[in-house]
Amino acid sequence: DKDDDYPLSDEIQNKMHPFWQELLNQGFIEKEKYDRLIRKTELTVEELSGYINKELLETRQSAKAVSSILKQFLPVISSI
After folding, report:
1. CB within 8 A of 18, min separation 6: which ones?
2. 35 vs 40: CA distance, rounded Å
3. Max CA separation in the chain (angstroms)
4. Cα Rg for the chain, rounded, in angstroms?
5. 37: how many CB neighbours lie within 10 A of its CB?
6. CA-to-CA distance for 7 and 17, rounded, in angstroms?
7. Cα–Cα distance between 54 and 60 in angstroms, integer?
8. Which pTM value belongs to this model?
9. Strand, coil or helix: 25
10. How far is the C-alpha of 47 from the C-alpha of 59, rounded, in Å?
11. What is the H or E stretch that residue 34 is in?
């Protein structure tokens, strides 16, 4: 199930914890990701704000990249 419940339910955490631990041990996920997966507390307002700001920055960067590509392939757009 993909939903917006956070932190993850105890059921999911208990089931997946050994797998996540192994991913961490093998270097497939960072400690920060692991800590988020096993976290028991809700996100703070500051953490949510930081997440939203990061997503907005990535969206702006993606839009600039797409614009640059389009200008290369559609020169008419460059003059607009």
Report:
1. none
2. 10
3. 57
4. 19
5. 19
6. 14
7. 10
8. 0.61
9. helix
10. 18
11. helix 31-38
- Full pLDDT tens readout for the chain, 80 residues: 667 788 999 999 999 999 999 999 999 999 999 999 999 999 899 998 998 999 999 999 999 999 898 888 887 655 55
- Return the structure tokens found at 70: 């389009």
Determine the Cα–Cα distance for residues 22 and 16; give it in Å rounded to an integer.
Answer: 10
Residue 55 in tokens:
């997503």
Structure tokens at 35: 């800590």
Q: Which two tokens stand for residue 3?
A: 């939903």
Tokens (6 digits) for 72: 């290369």
Q: How far is the C-alpha of 45 from the C-alpha of 52, rounded, in Å? A: 11
Question: Could you tell me the two tokens for 29?
Answer: 């996920």
